[in-house]
Amino acid sequence: MRHTRANLTLRTIVLAVIGLLGLPEIAFATGDIEVAGDVLQVLIPIAGIGTTVFYEQGHAGTIQFVESFATAQLTTVVLKEAIHKKRPNGQCCSSFPSGHSSAAFMGAAFIHRRYGWKYAWPAYLGATFVAYSRVEADKHFVEDVAAGAAIGIASSFLFTHPYHGVEISATADGGAYGLRFRKRFR
Question: What's the domain range around 53?
Answer without folding.
Answer: 2-85+92-183
